[in-house]
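Methods — Computational structure assignment.
A single polypeptide chain was analysed. Its primary sequence is given first, followed by the predicted tertiary structure written as structure tokens.
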Amino acid sequence: MKVLSRQRPLPNIFNLYTILTVLLQFAVHFACLVLLVQQAKEYSHLDKVPAEDVSNSTDVGVKEKSFQDDEFQPNIINSGVYIISMALQVANFTINYRGHPFMQNLAENRGMLLSILGSGGVIIALATGFLPGLSSQLEIVDFPPKFQFEVLQLMMGDFALAYLMDRCCLYLFGDGKSRFD
């Protein structure tokens, strides 16, 4: 951008819009993460190495073994969490990117747009098992077809709901003033 905007940015970050959009987006992302773990647990019986119950992780045995001593065992839960975590990060960058009047919009910022589209494409490919070589390098297990569909639905739902929360907050409180005043 070569010309300064007449519109000024918000005077500080502690305003109703910023606080509400951060909290609401966090709530959406956290709910999706919890939902994914619950869905993945339904399929965990298909894992070659079952996920261990960590509810008694504070029990002391004769030979105490710390969490760091365990070798990583890929399973449907940690693979799903890894994929949804990447999707949440891409959604955060996309939703919270502000274009005009202070920066280029996303369509004009070719590098950012290609990064988001490329990352999103890789995430979808990993969730659907389209890149088995990369999946094995990242130690992501194959998902059953029904779970693949559930993960894709969850990623799209998370993006749509977080976007809606942000845009509602922007409409109601975006200029530093409430629309209710």
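Note: Confidence is low (pLDDT under 50) at residues 54-58.
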